[in-house]
Amino acid sequence: MAILGNIIKGVIHLKDALSSEVNHQEAQSETLVHLLKEAEDTQFGKHYNFDAILKSTDPEKAFADSIPYFDYNKINEEWWHKLHDGETDVTWPDSPTYYALSSGTTGKTSKRIPVTDEMIEAIRQAGIKQVFALKNFDLPADFFEKEIMMLGSSTDLEERDQHLEGEISGISASNIPSWFRGYYKPGEDIAKIDDWDKRVQRIAERAKDWDIGALSGIPSWIELMLQEVINYHNLNNIHEIWPNLQVYTSGGVAFGPYEKSFNALMGKPVTVIDTYLASEGYIATQVRPETDAMQLNTDNGIYFEFVPFQPEYINQDGSLTKDAPSITLKDVELGQDYVLIISTVSGAWRYLIGDTIEFTDVKRAEIKITGRTKFFLNTVGSQLSVNKMDAAMRELEEQYDTTIPEYTICAKRGEDDEFYHFWYLGSELKNPDEKAIAESLDNALKSANKNYKVARSKALHGVKVKVVSPECFYDWNERNKKKGGQVKMERVMGEEKFKEWETFVNDD
């Protein structure tokens, strides 16, 4: 009998019984006031007169009216660079303990995003919320006695100028509570291995020693790890070595594109729980099984604003125009894509995180990620967002009985000087009829998006498709950034980057 598991499950249910449901709108108002009070005496707080915002009758409106939008480049050039020069109390009191290294979409230059002790605590609290939400998924008591495989970047953080640097997954894993370490795999020694391939090799070698009940990590890297374990032990599926695997906590990117290829590695169904942990904070987590939407962490160190995702508010580089209107949680609507804006206990202010979201339940503050502002393709009026592209991939998977976990697209002129959408699809499809696939893809997008259909009848001349192995995408990511990291593959490329990509694929 799973005695310990029953005790843990009982504690989770007791915690829920004693907790009151969060009023998300009130929590957000309280969060903004807390952020403003904490940062009132910082350089940023004095410059933008947080004291006056706090004294106003409507702090949320005063906040939006007083402070411009920032993306990473803008806030780093104007404020965060001072931290690197040794200044303190810049956008948040004192100095950050960590910096999260993130190139976001694959790139050679890493962003250095401050991570304060307050943010580490906020991430920890969000993780606890996720654990307590497991009661909603009706898992058996013995699940709570199994081990959890957390696969991210190395926990061997680099010490630099009296702080530590690494990717957010490595920073988070290096701060797991002591009581959790007995459950945590692959364990501290393996997690510190910097070389991803060597780390995965050690996981494969040790796999038989562990009783894994849950997986956590970015889908593409989790899949590669599972495939390595399967190949090393000559298995048909991962459940032959980890029979008690019941839960996969996905994060970093949307799980949808990987669902079919992930399930192909399983021997039986597992519960998939989506999470939204970015370098800038723990944004949201799925808390109930009736939906794959995620609940915003509204009471945990992050204040959210939302800008309607309309072409007139988006600059060519994915940033927002100065006059783009923002709204708060109380005014959002269903069925509308929004650009996500955050202010945090790490000193990010009205910060464009780069993602677009859609609300599925306003009262519960539940969202889905719908794409990236930089991946919005509006060349010749096609207005293609990532969620529309993802949906088209799912249609192709069904039609051609394959998996397409990765893809990228570029809109550019062809040899005839007409505009085309050039697609590269990552699939193991044998002898693909690329012209037929292009026609199927074109039809799927016409059905899903009226703006695309109009563009196809005018300036967008056609669709061209090339099918390559998914390994090309993983190798591209590895070339641009370490394997296993917080990589968001470029779903949409500019012409210069696309030329690099095509050269890379042709040389591979």
By CATH, the superfamily of the largest domain comes out as ANL, N-terminal domain
Helix content: 25-40%
Kindly report the CATH topology of the largest domain: Rossmann fold
End-to-end Cα distance, whole Å, is 53 Å
What count of structural domains?
2
Protein name: GH3 auxin-responsive promoter
GO cellular component, one term: cytoplasm
InterPro entries: GH3, GH3_C, GH3_M
Domain GH3 C-terminal: 390-496
Structural notes for this entry:
InterPro entries: GH3, GH3_C, GH3_M. Residues 390-496 form the GH3 C-terminal domain. One of its GO terms (cellular component) is cytoplasm. Residues 298-364 form the GH3 middle domain. The protein has 508 residues and is α/β, with parallel strands linked by helices. The protein folds into 2 domains: 1-289, ANL, N-terminal domain (Rossmann fold), CATH 3.40.50; 377-507. It contains 17 helices and 18 strands. It has helices at 3-18, 24-38, 43-47, 50-55, 59-66, 72-84, 117-133, 168-173, 188-191, 196-206, 219-232, 259-263, 386-400, 434-448, 450-456, 470-480, 495-507; strands spanning 98-102, 111-115, 147-151, 158-160, 163-166, 184-185, 212-217, 247-250, 271-278, 281-285, 294-296, 302-308, 337-344, 351-361, 366-372, 406-413, 419-426, 460-468. An 11-stranded mixed sheet has the order 6-3-7-8-9-10-11-15-14-13-12, with helices on both faces. It has a 4-stranded mixed sheet with strand order 2-1-5-4. Helix 12 links the parallel strand 8 and strand 9. Helix 10 (196-206) crosses helix 11, helix 13 packs across helix 14 and helix 14 (434-448) crosses helix 15 (450-456). The protein starts with a helix and ends with a helix. Mean pLDDT is 85; it is low at 1-10.
